[in-house]
Automatic annotation (TrEMBL), chain A:
Pfam families cross-referenced by the UniProt entry: MlaE
Source organism of this protein record: Bdellovibrio bacteriovorus
Domain of life: Bacteria
Gene Ontology molecular-function annotations: phospholipid transporter activity
Name the UniProt record assigns to this protein: ABC transporter permease
TM spans (from-to): 21-38, 59-82, 94-117, 162-184, 205-228, 248-265
UniProtKB/TrEMBL annotation, chain B:
GO molecular function: ATP binding; ATP hydrolysis activity; transmembrane transporter activity
Entry keyword ATP-binding: yes
Name this protein carries in UniProt: ABC transporter ATP-binding protein
Organism: Bdellovibrio bacteriovorus
Superkingdom of this protein's organism: Bacteria
PANTHER family tied to this protein: IMPORT ATP-BINDING PROTEIN (PTHR24220)
UniProt keyword list: ATP-binding, Nucleotide-binding
One Pfam family recorded for the sequence: ABC_tran
Amino acid sequence: MTSLLAQIDSLGRFVTKNVEYTVRVFLMVYLSLRAAILDKAQGFRQIVGVLSSQIYFTGWQALPLISVLALGVGSVMILQSLSNLTLLGGTQMIGSFLIVMILREAGPLLVALVVIARSGTAVASEIGNMRANREIEALESMGINPLSFIVFPRVVGGVLSVLGLAFYFNAIALIGGFLVTRFFQDMSLTFYTDSLMKAFAKEDVLIFFLKNGFSGMIIFVVSCYQGLSVKRSPHEVPQVTTQAVVNSIIFVVIFNLMVSALFYLNQLRSLGVV
Amino acid sequence: MKIESLKFEGVTFTHEGQDPIVQNVEFDFPMNEILWVKAEEGAGKSSLLQILAGLQIPQSGKYLINGENVCDMSFEEFLPYRLQIGYSFDYGGLINNRSLFDNLMLPLLYHKVVSPEEAKARVEGLLKEFGAEKFAHDRPAHVPGRIRKLTCLLRALVMRPQILLLDDPSVGLGQDSIYAFVDHVHRLRKEGHCKHVFISSYDEKFMNLFEYQIIHLDEGQLYFQAVDPEKRVVHL
């Protein structure tokens, strides 16, 4: 009985802790949005300055890594799907298969993981160090709201970067991957592009924006929150950076899974299966 | 906006898990004075200055500026008061990814207090006056600690506030910089700025360059001690 109560107690603590964390993160989003709207002093130039540097570091500088990853993933997926579909006599299905695997599933997840590894860590440690070095307090003392000056442009820049990177990833994986595999297979480009175009539906646009947009938001909101949670000491910075990575991965994976599950349930419902 | 009074009404402030810095304090701060905030080490002088700057919110009580309780105000509501308060940290506080010049320009440009040309002239003038112009375009990590400290002090002055809060201002400064800084504060006061100055310091020599009054922070309470400049013992 005592053991059961202890387990319930532990579960309760776990749930409360996570709910509290989520509420705090949402509160920060609300406050930074509010601060950005109400901040009359912050000019367009100030926002654009931070926003463009965020896009440069998160989007532009990640392009080489994303290119390699997209080419690799695209080539492997095309080769694997071709070899298996040819055996089953369903080569014309290649477009549908690639759209599902790359555009809907692998693309958003891989791009998010790259952005978490490169930029989520950078943002969490940068803001954590700013906190430890009292730069956040300094901004406040100058009448500059850190939420509108630091958090808001980073989140907006992050979301735009993730969307851009995801588009680039899909393009390179689908087109570049095909060109790389031309050495190993003899499918014509016209057949391939026709198959892709037929498979591409308007739901894919929705999934693209939903998954990538929210992944970007999750990564940068969580990273900013973790960075701001540093109290005083620089020794907390690596800890919050690790926590930012862990939380971002968990939230992004759960979110992606939820979107996929809801989408396929909806598809099954429209087909009358459920 | 003119700052005419600063008052604590039943103010209590505690850092988590520590003894109270101030406990149920009723205090009317003397205005138009240079106030030396004295206390034992770790008693909470920096926290007191941060409460006065609006950087820390007391757990209970009212902090009244011109009779208005600023503890309940949002960031935006407090902004007009904040722009009249210059605060200098005892350590750190410079924005590390900006040059010293940009650090000084930031509040002026952000709040559009003066035109960009005037802001540039003001900052260049300050850096020249303190002999720091050769470091102007370096980032804080690349300059000597003395220059970092000086820049932090100058940033508190650059907006020409009515209230000046200086936390251990003389620590890490060279003697020349100290004299130049004190002269600058005196000049600003003559011009009608920095009317209410609060300095926390252990440096009696530095404090003797001012005509100060004393506020003691002792066991969570504030006490005012008037100092007659004629009878002051000056150890130079």
